[in-house]
Amino acid sequence: MNTLDCLIYISRTTLAPVENRRQLDDIVEVSAYRNAEAGITGILTLQNGYFIQLLEGAPSALDLLMLHLHFDKRHKDIHIVARETIARKDITGWSMIGPAPSVPPHPLIDAMLARPPSSVRPWREALIEMAGVPA
Ligand SMILES: Cc1cc2nc3c(=O)[nH]c(=O)nc-3n(C[C@H](O)[C@H](O)[C@H](O)COP(=O)(O)O)c2cc1C
Question: Fewer CB atoms inside 10 Å of the end CB: C or N, the chain?
Answer without folding.
Answer: N
